[in-house]
Amino acid sequence: MSRSLAKVLSVVFHPLLMPTHLFAFILYYLPAPMFPLPLQVRWAVLVMIFFTTFIIPALGAYAMIRAGQVDSFEMERREQRSLPLLFTGLCYTTTAYLLYREPALDQLFYFIMGVIAVSVFLTFLISLFWKVSAHSVGVGGSLGILFMLHRLVPDGLMLLPLLFAILLTGAVLSARLALHAHTPAQVYAGFGSGFLLALVAGAIAF
Q1: Quick one: pLDDT at residue 58?
Q2: DSSP letter string, 102-165
């Protein structure tokens, strides 16, 4: 894989963007009877998720860079990842709570956001002693959530999205290796932890 393609994949599927990608799929691909929400409400929910899971954490990371606590958005040094991950986890937990407080939304919304928040805190804990790949945790968790949705929606509807997600997951993992951002162990461990967390949580809850 070329470095330019690897960089594009790493940016487009940055961990902070994964909640937006995932909820856009849920809101606009899954059958409308599953979530009887007007289009205006769906748009408002997606904008809120984008703001609380991407804009605010990104601004927080920028503030940390300006304060000299973090070198760059790449956070190549393991010891610099703890504070941004902790802040992001708090943002994601707040988002899950906001979804929980909204009676018009199905419990699946805050459950998925809660799983994503837990995956961020798991990444934070691992990063205290090892530089696990946050990209891999993100795509692994997203793939696990899609497998969970496969059991909840009509037969056949998730087959193509799952196939695409599997190929995309492989591409993102390859991109992180091509950029030498992580070792193979850090990439595969990140994928495995995110995937298993989402899969086990989904099996218990649904």
Answers
A1: 95
A2: -TTS-HHHHHHHHHHHHHHHHHHHHHTTS---HHHHHHHHHHHHHHHHHTTS-TTTTHHHHHHH
- Find how far residue 15's CA is from the centre of its chain: 5
Under-50 pLDDT residues of the chain: none
| 53-102: pLDDT as tens digits | 999 999 999 999 888 888 877 777 888 899 999 999 999 999 999 999 98
Burial label, 160 (beta-carbon count in 10 A; 0-12, 13-18, 19+): exposed
What is the distance in angstroms between the CA of the first residue and the CA of the last residue of the chain?
38
Tokens read off for 195: 């995937």
Question: Whole-angstrom Cα distance, residue 116 to residue 101?
Answer: 17
In whole angstroms, what separates CA 91 from the centre of its chain?
Answer: 13
Assigned token pair, 46: 């997606």
The closest alpha carbon to 138, from 19, 12, 1, 9, belongs to 19
- The dihedral sign for the CA sequence 130, 165, 202, 21: positive
